[in-house]
């Protein structure tokens, strides 16, 4: 546990603060494990009241991710928000379906032991900030489809290996283009 909070020991209505840095080596994403290359700065405020433990906060760090077009790793700055309510697990059993669905939207977390780890919310806040399509820059040119050269480094790349592995669909298009260029 990186940010343990013993809910049983909190005073109702008191605002508690956590401010610190977490040093995780990597974070598991859809694309695989991505190294964390800056301290994970965390600010959290939490307060226990009759609805449960309310948690609000922010998280900031930098991940090293692979670009989905050119495959180079790049630094992805992350700024995430933490927003959650912890409620005792017993509450869940008493609830009706409709209410449950609504609460999913409110980021309700049910706990069964008095000590919870707010670092789980930090991880969540980072993961949701990672875009579906990871690009080193919006206009990443990707790789040459014939030889695999990174076209960002060589935008004027004319592939000499082109003739070898031509996609038939591409060949038709090329022929069409050259016919237009020749005027017929
Ligand atoms: Zn790229
Ligand atoms: Zn090439």
What features would you describe in this structure?
This protein has 184 residues and is of the alpha+beta class. It has 2 domains: 4-129, no CATH class; 141-184, no CATH class. It has 4 helices and 9 strands; from the N terminus they run βββββββααββαα. It has helices spanning 89-94, 97-105, 119-129, 168-182, and strands at residues 4-6, 15-22, 26-29, 32-35, 40-49, 52-66, 73-88, 108-111, 115-117. A 5-stranded mixed β-sheet has the order 2-5-6-7-8. A two-stranded antiparallel sheet has the order 1-9. A hairpin with a 6-residue loop joins strand 6 (52-66) and strand 7. The protein starts with a strand and ends with a helix. One zinc ion (ZN) binds at residues 144, 146-147, 149, 157, 159, 161.
Ligands (ions, cofactors included): zinc ion
Number of domains: 2
Total count of helical runs of at least 4 residues: 4
Relative strand content: 35-45%
Poorly predicted ranges: none
* Mean pLDDT, all residues: 88
Order of helices and strands: EEEEEEEHHEEHH
Any idea what the radius of gyration is? 25 Å
Sequence of strands across the biggest β-sheet:
2-5-6-7-8
Fold topology:
Layout: E1 4-6, E2 15-22, E3 26-29, E4 32-35, E5 40-49, E6 52-66, E7 73-88, H1 89-94, H2 97-105, E8 108-111, E9 115-117, H3 119-129, H4 168-182
Residues 144, 146-147, 149, 157, 159, 161 line the site of one zinc ion.
Quick take:
The protein is α+β, with helices and mostly antiparallel strands. It has helices spanning 89-94, 97-105, 119-129, 168-182, and strands at 4-6, 15-22, 26-29, 32-35, 40-49, 52-66, 73-88, 108-111, 115-117. The protein contains four helices and nine strands; from the N terminus they run E-E-E-E-E-E-E-H-H-E-E-H-H.
């Amino acid at each position: 546990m990186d940010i343990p909070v013993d809910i049983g020991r909190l005073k109702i209505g008191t605002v508690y603060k956590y401010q610190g840095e977490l040093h995780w080596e990597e974070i598991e994403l859809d694309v695989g494990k991505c190294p964390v290359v800056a301290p994970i700065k965390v600010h959290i405020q939490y307060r226990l009241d009759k609805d449960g433990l309310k948690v609000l906060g922010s998280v900031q760090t930098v991940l090293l991710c692979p670009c989905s077009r050119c495959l180079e790793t790049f630094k992805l700055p992350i700024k995430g928000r933490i927003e959650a309510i912890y409620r005792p697990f017993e509450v869940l059993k008493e609830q009706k379906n409709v209410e449950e669905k609504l609460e999913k939207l409110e980021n309700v977390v049910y706990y069964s032991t008095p000590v919870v780890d707010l670092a789980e919310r930090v991880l969540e806040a980072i993961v949701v900030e990672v875009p579906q399509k990871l690009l080193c820059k919006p206009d990443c040119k990707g790789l040459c489809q014939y030889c695999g050269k990174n076209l960002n480094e060589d935008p004027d790349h004319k592939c000499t290996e082109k003739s070898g592995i031509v996609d038939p669909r591409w060949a038709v298009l090329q022929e069409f283009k050259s016919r237009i260029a020749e005027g017929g």
